[in-house]
Amino acid sequence: MTATVFGQDGPWTEKDYLTLMGRRGRVELFDGSLHVTPAPTPRHQRIQRNLGNLLETAARRVGLELLETVNVRLKPGRIPIPDLVVTEPIDFDEPMIEARDVRLVCEVISPSNAATDKVLKMHYYAAAGIEWYLLVEQETSTLHLYRRQGRHYREVSVTKPADVLELTDPVRATIRPEDLVP
Known about the structure:
six-stranded mixed β-sheet
């Protein structure tokens, strides 16, 4: 299928992957294979933007950056595009961010990508050493915060509507699920 869409068979290298920059939809690279998903729904985008607004102010206060839908190199040949990342200061002209610079990664779970975010990406982010992982479940408006323990994540908190998530690391932010969902 990728040969038909992108004009070549796999496996895909980082160099091949970077030639796809600017194509419509999200194209991620996982160990020589492309993972293609359509653009997020308006609801997904609204949740992502609202969460980004909350985290951006908090990140800037401590000298960090908040970025949306950027390439993150977890290791050579493994480049997902998370919904949001909080990073150390980075070079804005580079085509991707290195995992070592990412302090928090956030994914908004859509029904079409739930397994990818809850299993595959969670494993990959932890193995790459990203300390914090925040998952937002659209269907239940629930926030799941994970902290890395070794090469895996351990759930630190579950925040349901009417509850409050008080982030203290890597940024200080108060997040209410009902403020994210339209």
